[in-house]
Amino acid sequence: MMTKHEQILQYIDNLPVGSKISVRQIAKDLDVSEGTAYRAIKEAESQGYVSTIERVGTVRIEKKQKENIERLTFAEVVNIVDGHVLGGREGLHKTLNKFVIGAMQLDAMMRYVDAGNLLIVGNRTQAHKLSLQQGAAVLITGGFDTSDEVKQLADKLALPIISSSYDTFSVASLINRAIYDQLIKKEIVMVEDVLKPIEETPMLHTYDTVDVWHQYTQDHHDTRFPVVDDQMRLVGIVTSKDIIGHDSWVTMDKVMTKNPITTSPRVSVASSAHLMVWEGIELLPVVDNHKRLVGVLSRQDVLKALQYMQKQPQMGETFPTQIMSRFREEKIADTLVYQGDITPQMTNHLGTVASGVMTTVMVESACNLLRLHRRGDMVPENIVVYFFKPVQIESRIEIKPQLLDISRRFGKVEVAVYHQDQLVCKALVTAQIVER
């Protein structure tokens, strides 16, 4: 039997895309407290099929798939530009294909506006109207309003018309940044992308016997299985070592390992791989917020996902890749040396290199050296900084990682940083190696 929280989530999931959601209305319709309704709505928002917009309310939106995660909904645009909706609220759930800046004559502008676009323009009412007629939403910069005729047209076509107090350049920069962040997210493979779904997961119940486990090992060619109760909540995991010495009629609740290590669908595969290697486990159950089993992640699934990630084109740069792009790598025998200048972006308010930047450089150079010796993905475990001297802006530094120890699963590197042949920083980096 579903809990009230689960009933509310199912109710929200079944609402038509674009529907407005009210805490008070859900509490009344489903006969639950407003606190319970509020918590369920927040979870639905974290799962990506509800969006809350200031001065508009909460709206049911279409949950994005991995392939279109780089697209933004108009509801997200409202939040990004701190705007308010003048009309067309029913279309807030729609995604925009691209945005067009209206900084030209009206006739020329309309040649670039297509259905599904977002036109960013000032207080040019005729441009607002023509854009809506061509199937594009409108974002008005400078905090300006528009005519009642345009607002009515937006409501009729379910195309949002949004007003923001920011100027055109700031709005375009904010939206570009949001799309760029989405591209980085697209590259990150999550557990939910690669797990074996519940429909394909062999599992045992607490009342199943050791005899059933033996039958499962023959049918599924495996010895590790999650154990669930009648509500599909994970209560344990059973392996061959749990079964040894027990009679065939003994039930799983008597032999299973209780409170197993788990992960959630919205955790990165890299983080889960680190957990599996660190804890020495081959099968990681995946559960939702209510401890219900949603699938399992095996070591083979993790390896395949990491191989897939290596084949993907880099579409969005993270801070580590941006920082390391400023350094030239030189391979000398079986080691690496990096040289580069301290740019203004790398410094703190005093004009010396920021500690976070220096730490990133040392960790990245250490992991790159380990990759030179061992094929695999490196997950930093620990970094101990022995000392750190200030290095001024525009100074040239040299980073020299030295391999101390490497095994199949772990590597240890000492990193020394020099400025004008003087040692300015030294650290010990330990990383976990996830073989491909």
Structure description:
It is a single chain. Helix content is 35%, strand content 26%. It folds into 4 domains: 4-60, Arc Repressor Mutant, subunit A (Orthogonal Bundle); 66-186, HprK N-terminal domain-like (Udp-n-acetylmuramoylalanyl-d-glutamate--2,6- Diaminopimelate Ligase, Chain: A, domain 1), CATH 3.40.1390; 192-309, CBS-domain (Roll); 319-434, Hotdog Thioesterase (Thiol Ester Dehydrase, Chain A, Roll), CATH 3.10.129. The chain is flat and about 80 Å long. The two termini are 42 Å apart. A 6-stranded antiparallel beta sheet has the order 16-17-19-20-21-18. It has a 5-stranded mixed beta sheet with strand order 4-8-7-6-5, with helices on both faces. It has 436 residues and is an alpha+beta fold. The chain has 16 helices and 21 strands. Pfam families: CBS (PF00571), DRTGG (PF07085). Residues 190-254, 256-312 form the CBS domain. This is CBS domain-containing protein. InterPro entries: CBS_dom, CBS_dom_sf, Diverse_CBS-Domain, DRTGG, HotDog_dom_sf, Ser_kin/Pase_Hpr-like_N_sf, WH-like_DNA-bd_sf, WH_DNA-bd_sf. Keywords: CBS domain.
